[in-house]
Amino acid sequence: MTTQTPTGKASSDPPIQPPAIPGLPDAATLTRWANEFFAVVPGARSGEPPAAATAAVTQAPAAAAGSILPVNDLSMLTAGSLPRLSAGELVHPILPVLRSYPPPSLDAATPHPAVATGAAASPAFYFLQDRQTLPPAGTGHPAFDVYTIRRDFPILATHVHGRPLVWLDNAATTQKPTVVIERLSYFYRHENSNVHRAAHELAARATDAYEGARTQVQRFLGAASADEIVFVRGATEGINLVAQSWGRQNVRAGDEIVISHLEHHANIVPWQMLALERGAVLKVIPVDSSGQIRLDELQRLVTDRTKIVSIAHVANALGTVTPVKEVVEIAHRAGALALIDGAQSVSHMPIDVRALDADFFVLSGHKVFGPTGIGALYGRRSVLEAMPPWQGGGSMIEDVTFEKTTYQPPPARFEAGTGSIADAVGLGAALEYLGTIGMHNIERYEAQLLAYATERLLSVPGLRIVGTAAHKASVLSFVIDGLEPTAIGTALNQEGIAVRAGHHCAQPILRRFGHETTVRASLAVYNTCADVDALVKALRELTASPTRAYR
Prior knowledge:
Elements: E1 3-4, E2 10-11, H1 27-38, H2 54-59, H3 95-98, H4 146-151, E3 159-160, E4 163-164, E5 166-167, H5 178-191, H6 201-221, E6 229-232, H7 235-250, E7 256-260, H8 269-278, E8 281-285, H9 295-301, E9 306-312, H10 324-333, E10 337-341, H11 353-356, E11 360-364, E12 375-379, H12 381-386, E13 397-400, E14 405-407, H13 421-437, H14 439-457, E15 463-465, E16 475-480, H15 485-494, E17 497-498, E18 500-502, H16 507-512, E19 518-522, H17 529-544
Parallel strand pairs: 5-17, 7-8, 7-9, 9-10, 10-11
Antiparallel strand pairs: 1-2, 3-4, 6-12, 11-12, 13-14, 15-16, 16-19, 18-19
């Protein structure tokens, strides 16, 4: 089938035939839903309709067969205009059907290098093996509607270079919902004060808001007490606090610190500094060819001299979800503590620090739809109580004389000076917002979106995904033959598409796979198949005319 693009150029993509799936509505209803969906998907083509539905397609106002439809008008897709399936499906009923289509230009006879050969000839990613066995939808939450969620984020209506913003740089930072923006504004308009100790009304309001945010973090992480939550500037500061306070107290010459090859620099450098200072040994868990850590090697590395194992829950450069529960168990069997860097996991999946049995867990607010400059360290109460302060100053003391100072119990002991009060309140609002959606719902939706994005990216000529572990979260790191990642990122920016191009503060793992830099597209709860299609369309145009990347 040949279609005309908005620029008048011909396209010879093969027709997409709707598959026969038991339980779907009649063809006319299905076609109407498809027309409504394709009316808002960038670059989407209406397929050749089956004979039984030709009349329905001909009469449908949203799309005529063989036409290219307007793009990026998400306002056309409203919750009221779309029928809902059961709670176990996404809000738009055509998406499960779309997910059964092959990528339009992927020739199954000549699979992409990243696709496993064999009878099925399908990519070796767990989320493409059986698409119908996703986690069950959460209970107690409204039906999941990504378009309603998108309207909660005002920046997504922004245009860049005359094109609607497609934000695929979520692993670097997430955008902020209106409730967070308004909560920050309300704090500064009605509650602004320093916290604790004062006798006036605004101090009481500010203290209630600040400590209320601490309770929100406690509930979000599943901690036993709000006293186990320390506010810090972000995950980086949380790791440094543990290394400098707990580490200096407990690590001696010849002791061992274990990290993995996957780590962000923030979970490498603080431990290197501590090891150098204390004469300790830094050990590294290797990864396999897919980018997953090797538990067999961890068991070999851990000894009775190991003091702590510190590992990312989700690798920021590859998206690998590590088996943190097993890592914690191995560390504890050796008498070591375990720290989990949750900067990249908290926005994608439910977290329960007690179920994980973690001794420490760190997160950054700006990567979970909250403000910048705020984060949290969870520490097991017994461990925090035994740790000395890291920084000295106001708020963290009980009594000061020139001879001696006594310190507050945790968490105040680790919060010297005036903290980021308003930002902590904003973080609490962000976590409350996620609670209204349901983290299980978010995990389920993103698993489907990642599966769709992986399939579509594999249709781009010369594109290779870096990091193909069986368990991944919403990160797709890739390279394209003959094109520099920075040039790709710059070219995508001209199309209004934001991705990250560089080493992602994770140089060791990229070098493990033979790269200095990659392009990283990272997804969040507000991203859609339309965002993925816009990315793939731009990449295919770029590979067809590589000089565009260097203009």
